[in-house]
Design goal:
single chain, five-stranded antiparallel β-sheet, four-stranded antiparallel β-sheet, 16 helices
Length: about 450
């Protein structure tokens, strides 16, 4: 057997494997003899069929299997011995494989495309500066959140006259008779210039309007039609009010506090506001932390400047997901994949150079945290903790063990980022929600 490497560029190459009869024939003959001992062929007692007949029946399939096994193990061993880091999986050159004459050929030549990176260097110290953000929730946002909660837990009423924020239940009909439907119109979805038409209405009142102009967004969803029917909602329409629905905000009392947070969690309006603030701050800052961590990753990726084999990786992604994605989809999603791959390479390199390891105990604790977050609003508290080991085991054993490996990777990434943060210069900045939204858009 002869294996040679032909580098086409700094990150792509071909591996050629040449097999002659002496490499594979002993294994093929041994396998055929094994078949002969076990074969149950019509006209012969079990295991008594002539070798020549067994070889004629099974020889080619045995040859293909044995050569494929030799190729797989030899290629893997060869690539493991290289200093560079293999990306994806080797891709067989299909054109060559299609030309093989398995019945008559004695010598075989195989070729595989590979993509790789080498000499990955990740340097970081106090000269590397990044900004880490903390979000401060403003009073207006808290007030909006409390108002939404009061409406959510408020009492439904049916007033005589409509006002802003109500829902009008009634019949919409095209004046030309081409469309008719009964639905509930939330006045919060009506454009400000059209809203005055819907204020001060009573049961039985009729107004005329153009839905495509009056309903400012999600027209199909608001009216309750398919997107394909939206074009029917343009022109002159009438709306007959059947009922007016209004949610009166709940009072800020103990009954309301208990409904929102559970019995005896808060006992005053001040404590209620503080808890809303704490929860909103915690939730927003989880998002901010993810954003800040991604910026650190971006900085390290840019600094490492890893030269990925784009052409090879796109071909590998397409062939590995054959029938599930188009080439256009691969091209569109490639930048996201390239970023994830670059970070994986960097994280592994930092972990290796600094002996950072994700331990089994870390995986268990991180899984517990994830489960607690998922059940945070369920009120299961003590029951959840008593069954935690079962939840953890079920999750980590799921998806054929992939869940465990993903959690292991997540733990390593957490440890690598924590290590990096200790070594670089971090500027802390407190921002508002509006500023955070601006950062997300950039």
């Amino acid at each position: 057997m002869e294996i040679t490497l032909d580098k086409h560029s700094a990150n792509q190459a071909s591996v050629k494997i040449k097999l002659n009869e002496a490499d594979y024939q002993p294994k093929v003959d041994a396998k055929v003899k094994d078949y002969a001992r076990k074969a149950n062929i019509k006209g012969f007692r079990p295991g008594k069929a002539p070798i020549a007949m067994v070889k004629k029946l099974y020889g080619t399939s045995v040859l293909v299997d044995e050569i494929n096994n030799m190729l797989s193990s030899s290629l893997n061993d060869y690539l493991k011995s290289q200093t560079f880091r293999i990306l994806g999986d080797p891709l067989p050159v299909v054109e060559n494989a299609d030309q093989i004459d398995w019945a008559n050929q004695k010598d075989f030549d195989f070729e595989y495309k590979i993509g790789f990176v080498e000499d990955v260097k990740v340097d970081f110290d106090k000269s590397l500066n990044v900004t880490s953000y903390t979000l401060e929730v403003d009073k207006a946002t808290i007030a909006d959140a409390v108002s939404n909660l009061r409406r959510q837990y408020g009492k439904m009423t049916n007033p005589d006259v409509s006002q802003e924020g109500d829902f009008l239940y009634g019949d919409i009909k095209a004046l030309d008779g081409s469309f008719e439907k009964t639905f509930s119109l939330p006045l919060s979805k009506v454009d400000g210039r059209s809203l005055k038409k819907f204020i001060g209405l009573s049961k039985g009142d009729i107004i005329e309007f153009d839905p495509s102009k009056a309903i400012k967004e999600d027209l199909a969803e608001v009216v309750g039609v398919e997107d394909s029917e939206v074009e029917k909602l343009s022109g002159k329409f009438s709306f007959v009010v059947q009922n007016i629905n209004r949610t009166e905000e709940a009072e800020l009392n103990q009954e309301f506090f208990d409904k929102v947070f559970g019995p005896d969690q808060v006992d005053s309006e001040e404590a209620f506001m503080e808890k809303v603030n704490a929860i909103m701050s915690e939730n927003y800052n989880k998002e901010v932390k993810v954003f800040s961590d991604e910026k650190i990753k971006d900085t390290l990726i840019e600094k490492a400047n890893i030269d990925l084999p784009e052409g090879f990786l796109k071909e590998w992604l397409f062939r590995a997901n054959e029938g599930k994605v188009t080439q256009e989809q691969v091209d569109q999603e490639y930048p996201i994949y390239a970023k994830q791959l670059s970070w994986t390479i960097i994280s592994n390199e930092i972990a290796k150079n600094n002996e950072i390891k994700a331990e089994h105990e870390d995986v268990i604790e991180k899984t517990k945290e994830m489960i607690r977050e998922q059940f945070a609003s369920s009120g299961m508290g003590a029951q959840l903790e008593s069954s935690m080991d079962m939840f953890v085991d079920n999750y980590l054993q799921g998806n054929e063990g992939q869940n465990y490996m993903q959690m292991l990777t997540s733990v390593q990434n957490d440890k690598v980022l924590a290590f990096v943060k200790e070594k670089i210069d971090i500027t802390e900045e407190v921002i508002s929600i509006d500023k955070f939204k601006e950062l997300l858009e950039n």
